[in-house]
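Q: Joint fold for the lines below.
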Amino acid sequence: MSTHNEPLLAFDHVKKHFGGLFVTNDVSFSVQQGEVLFIIGPNGAGKTTIFNLITGFVTPDEGDIRFEGESIKGLKPYQIARRGIGRTFQIVQPLANMSVLDNVMLGAFAHTSSKHEARRQADEILDLTGLGKWRDRMAGSLPLAGRKRLEIARALATRPKLILLDEVCAGLTPTEAVETIQLLKQLRDRGVSAIGGIEHVMRVVMEISDRVIVIHHGQKIAEGTPQEVTSHPDVIEAYLGARLEV
Amino acid sequence: MFLQTIVNGLLLGALYAIVGMGLSIVFGTMRIVNFAHGQFVMAGMYITYTLFTAFGLDPYVSALVSFVLCFLLGMAVYRVAIHRIIRGPEMNHILLTAGIGLMLTNLAQMVYNTNQLTINLSYSHRDLVFGGLRINIAYLISFLIAAVVAALLFWFIMKTETGRAIRAISQNAAAAALSGIHVTRVTMLAFGLGIAVAGVAGTLLLPIHYVDPSVGDAFSLLAFIIVVLGGMGSILGSAIGGLLIGVIAQLASYYLGQSYSDVLTYVVFLLVLLFKPSGLLGRSRV
Amino acid sequence: MKRLRAWILPILVLILFALIPFTASFYYQQIFFYIFLFAGVGFAWNLVGGYAGQLSLGHAAFFGIGAYAYALLAPHIGTGPAVLAAAVLSTVSAAPIGLICFRLRGPYFALATIAVAQLLLVLATNQFKGLTQGAAGLLVQGMVPDPSLYYWVALGFMVVAFAVTALLATSKTGYYLMAIREDEDTAQTVTINTPLYKLYALLVSALLTGVGGSIFAANLGTIQPNDVFSAAISNQVVFLAILGGAGTLYGPLVGAFILEFASDWLKNSVANVTWLGDANAFAFFLYGLLIVLVVMYMPAGIVGTVAKWRKGRAAHVHAQRTTAGV
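A: Joint structure:
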């Protein structure tokens, strides 16, 4: 991707503190069109805050966040969603008393007022994400992997240009994690960019990420290809010298 | 006269304070949205009334009876009903406790009818005079007992093992359970305690405030106003909130007329909800 | 085909309702009047409290504003315009009330709505006594020439209220309101302007509730603030919707039906049982018990529980068929 172009998302010297503690301390990074970026960091490092900052649930104290060249700082979460940024939550929040189909239709309603059309689009996405077999089940009754996938499906139905997946693999079995990553590949092939949040460096993730950044105590300590990052001394230091699983 | 009104407000406010402190334990700490709190205040008032008219028992003695009976009643209500829905949505807490309130209100009406009842103590109408200030003895005794109850409650929550367990659950029930606290038992105890304090508040109110079946709803709303004003989860805040509401009500009532005391109370409540939702002493809640 | 079948039951019920006045006494016509009226207001509440999940415990505010707007204006501008004015005024009042209360969530929202309704009750009783005549009561001009015709007014009101809520609830708006009920943050991530949709639901709800208040006042003939602004009105609307099934289409009608008939039967059958004391109070005691039991054992309400049960059975049958097919 050429560097002259404005990136899809620019996270520009953003600072955020709660009380006296910086949870995001002067972090910058960008996502190019069609790129998959992973943010790696232990629990509490500040990954979720970055997702909340991008999606408007938290407002930056300093710095700017631009999407397609325009600042989205200070916009409400629903306005940011309308610009084309979808997300999932770290703690899955399916709309439990609505069916799987209803959940995905909600996303589709972003582009149509017709129930018929929303249902058609939702069914397409249910097929794509392999949720078709659970179409009429209540969302709350799905197993964790299903609920996580449903969150992705619901976000996809809004036709995002960028999708943020907080803790994509947490709580999943290795097989389920691979399936999720496969889904991400499919999305990338369709031109959807993604930012994934993940606790530990995992091989499956490395295969599809174009770039990785490592967050520690609210600061970016490394950025680069998966190979570069995993051999970075600060990263090894941050993980207390624990052997990285690559 | 301004000073006299303030003093009257503080005397009344001390009773409001313990009404609020009771709810503060239940709602602020245990997160149970109890819309029947005022009905338990009412229960304390009727218990006191009955003991006084049947046996001539002095209300300041029957405070102990109110405490014990309401404690048991509260724990029973928790065990039978609230415990089953405590993990459900807050909407269900509200509806369930509103139903319990309706039951208690109408039970009272079946037994005592809708008459406004009060008790006349030999010292009800005597005043102490300090300089220009007149202080009614019944008010003063209620105030002093309320202060003692408030202090005991504060000590219990802050210093005892059970109090620590209650605070631990309010911070993080899951973590509290992991560290060996019997969450159900402690929550039941805390609910009973909050209700018992409401009962005592009812006893102390009776010599200066009539009781009829409708006071329950009024005290429920008042209790929430006090807790929100003082700040969620802050028992000290509720005490201050109660005193403040007492003073506001008395000032409005004296300078603007009786009905303005309600108007002002509700307006203050809405303003606090809007502009300082964490209350005066509360931790901010997101 | 499926669409057509969905219409059969409501039309049959409607025909049944239309036959009642020809067979029932005025006494029972009045019972049906209250069923229809409160079912209509229950439908209105259901948009906000059931579908959008915002527990309003202060709908008496809109009910009372509608009642007094009609009572005060009807002698000057006539019946039709006065009902229209009641609708407009209750809708307009819902805007500031919504802007204030919707800044709060959960129990704080519920408390704020109670405070607003109570505030209006106190103001109408005292500060605006000149206008409302306070507790002395205000004479209300009738809407129809004959008292027995109120049956039709209430039935018409209920049908309109049902049509409006059903139209909204089964469209995109209904999905959006349910998403808000389930989780407001998630709703925002799928582009829903949650404050706007909550306010929209409240405005429609207040409009219908205000019209309900005006019909209630006209039927009563004279009103005091306590008749229309009281917590009893707010609570009745909430309880009948919960009993029937909050967030279901027919729930409020089922709830209103059961509550009105049960309380009528109770009041008549225990009226002479002296040891119970006040028969009315006993009825309300059981009413409270009913609410407790519903919340504990049937929180989805009657219609919601039946729907779940049928869905469960349908899934079961479906599973059996698929297994048999394999």
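Q: Anything notable?
A: The mean pLDDT of chain B is 89. The interface with chain C takes residues 27, 33, 81, 84-85, 88, 90-96, 98-107, 109-111, 113-114, 213, 217, 221, 224-225, 228, 257, 259, 262-263, 266-267, 269-270, 273-274, 277 of chain B (CB under 8 Å).
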